[in-house]
């Protein structure tokens, strides 16, 4: 019983710490008046949280990362820490992207403040028309921003390395003439977070791999191209 109590207490402490940290940075982001400042705060938040969780990030093929420019970044999605992994991977570049965020995160008491002010575009799946969503993206791209998206549309909770891509990401690339920057998080971040909650003393590494840039004019099956780049079976 004592061990169970300690483990539960550890989870509670991590949850409270994460909530306070997330909202603390959410307030700082609210007052940030430039994309450079927002990027710096997002990296600082990710780094601070990962230090607390004993997590490090290894970037494979880092030399493939462009230093600047505008892109549609595509990533697989297993766990809630995936955006933070990507922020850390891009920290030495000038690439600043807006995350496509579903309404549930916008209104979340845990993530809402951070998401609303950290740089995001709302995706409301309950809307019958998507015109406003695509107009928002076009406007923000014209401002000089990249777009970051999980093309699977939701977290992959299956045993497959990847679930089927949704269609909308290709349209975003075409309408905004954004080259595609593919990245692949090889580590199962859902399992990593579960390990952290069970044992605060273990150190873990998350591996993210950078792929080759794909032209927005590419006519092939982008999901298959993505799989081939990262040797996903």
What's the helix and strand layout?
Blueprint: H1 2-30, H2 35-53, E1 55-60, E2 71-75, H3 82-89, E3 97-102, H4 103-106, H5 112-118, E4 120-123, H6 131-142, E5 146-149, H7 168-176, E6 179-185, H8 189-198, E7 204-210, H9 222-229
Please explain how this structure is put together.
With about 230 residues, this protein is an alpha/beta fold. It has one domain (about 1-230): 3-Layer(aba) Sandwich (Glycerol-3-phosphate (1)-acyltransferase), CATH 3.40.1130. About 45% of the residues lie in helices and about 15% in strands. The chain contains 9 helices and 7 strands, in the order ααββαβααβαβαβαβα. Strands 1-7-6-2-5-3-4 form a 7-stranded mixed β-sheet, with helices on both faces. α1 runs antiparallel to α2 (about 35-55), α1 (about 1-30) packs parallel to α5 (about 110-120) and α2 packs across α3. The termini are far apart.
């Amino acid at each position: 019983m004592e061990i169970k109590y300690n483990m539960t207490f550890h989870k509670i402490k991590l949850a409270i710490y994460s909530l306070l940290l997330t909202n603390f940075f959410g307030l700082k982001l609210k007052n940030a008046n430039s994309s450079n400042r927002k990027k710096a705060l997002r990296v600082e938040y990710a780094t601070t949280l990962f230090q607390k969780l004993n997590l490090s990030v290894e970037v494979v093929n880092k030399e493939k990362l462009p230093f600047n420019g505008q892109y549609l970044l595509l990533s697989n999605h297993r766990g809630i820490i995936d955006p933070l992994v990507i922020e850390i991977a891009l920290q030495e570049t000038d690439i600043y992207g807006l995350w496509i965020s579903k309404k549930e995160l916008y209104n979340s008491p845990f993530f809402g403040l951070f998401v609303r002010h950290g740089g995001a575009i709302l995706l409301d799946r309950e809307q019958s028309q998507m015109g406003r969503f695509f107009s928002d993206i076009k406007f923000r791209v014209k401002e000089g921003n990249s777009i970051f998206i999980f093309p699977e549309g939701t977290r992959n909770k299956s045993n497959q390395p990847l679930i089927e891509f949704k269609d909308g990401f290709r349209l975003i690339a075409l309408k905004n003439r954004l080259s595609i920057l593919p990245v692949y998080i090889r580590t199962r971040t859902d399992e990593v977070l579960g390990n952290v909650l069970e044992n605060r003393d273990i150190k873990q590494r998350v591996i993210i791999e950078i792929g080759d840039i794909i032209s927005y004019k590419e006519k092939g099956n982008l999901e298959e191209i993505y799989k081939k780049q990262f040797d996903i079976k």
